[in-house]
Amino acid sequence: MENCIQELRKERKITQNELADAVEVTRQTIISLESGRYNASLILAHKIAQYFDMTIEDIFIFNLEEENIC
Amino acid sequence: MLIQTLSQGAKTDEEYKNKLISGIKRDRVLCIFGVVTIIVALLWMMTDNGVQGSFLSGVFTGTGAVIFFFALKHILKTKKMLKNEKLLHAERLKESDERNHMIAEKAMYWAGVIIMGVCYVVMLVSGFFNMAVFWSVWGMVMTYCILAAVLKKYFEKKL
């Protein structure tokens, strides 16, 4: 699943450490999320969306083909 | 460490602090357990119990020492964390981090699968040479299979 966390973070001049602290995960988790190596849980996705004041769908791009759904 | 990661993480620093304080009590018990193991092994070493007894008392002394030192190390680390709020917060995040949980689960899953695969091969080969080894490994493989089936049923009902 793709996401635009890195773009949003850079746009708002937030460091990975600050975001990690705000959503209560480690910096490594943010790095993995940004590089697309790890998919966030629903709770974490919700926390990130709340932090950026956006919806989950705006941040996480769900690719139906990639997930073998269509 | 893997088990620690898999344990339920605390939601607040205060909750984590309480968890650490109760952890110190557990570590103190482990320290005593380690010392008792060393004393028993040393007493056993003094009696004449042959080569096997001598070897085993060495193994028990080593095991006791490892338990004692790791528990002591954990107590010291916990006390250091209790004095430093920043360190405590960082450690709580590390322990409750969902990615770390997933890594620990995957590591344990693959360790279990690989161990069982190795045990299965050892069981087949050992049957030709030593029946004691065969039955020991057979017991392990069967226990693993039964446990896996029981735990699957348990989690099917729980989740």
TrEMBL record, chain A:
Protein name: Transcriptional regulator
Keyword DNA-binding: yes
Sample GO molecular function, one term: DNA binding
One Pfam short name: HTH_3
PANTHER family: DNA-BIDING PHAGE PROTEIN (PTHR46558:SF4), TRACRIPTIONAL REGULATORY PROTEIN-RELATED-RELATED (PTHR46558)
Keyword annotations: DNA-binding
Location of the HTH cro/C1-type domain: 5-59
UniProtKB/TrEMBL annotation, chain B:
Pfam families: DUF2178 (PF09946)
Keyword entries, A-Z: Membrane, Transmembrane, Transmembrane helix
Stored InterPro entries: DUF2178_TM
The organism's place on the tree of life at top rank: Bacteria
Chain segments annotated as transmembrane: 29-47, 53-72, 107-126, 132-151
Protein name: Uncharacterized protein
Organism for this UniProt entry: Muricomes intestini
Source organism phylogeny: Bacteria, Bacillati, Bacillota, Clostridia, Lachnospirales
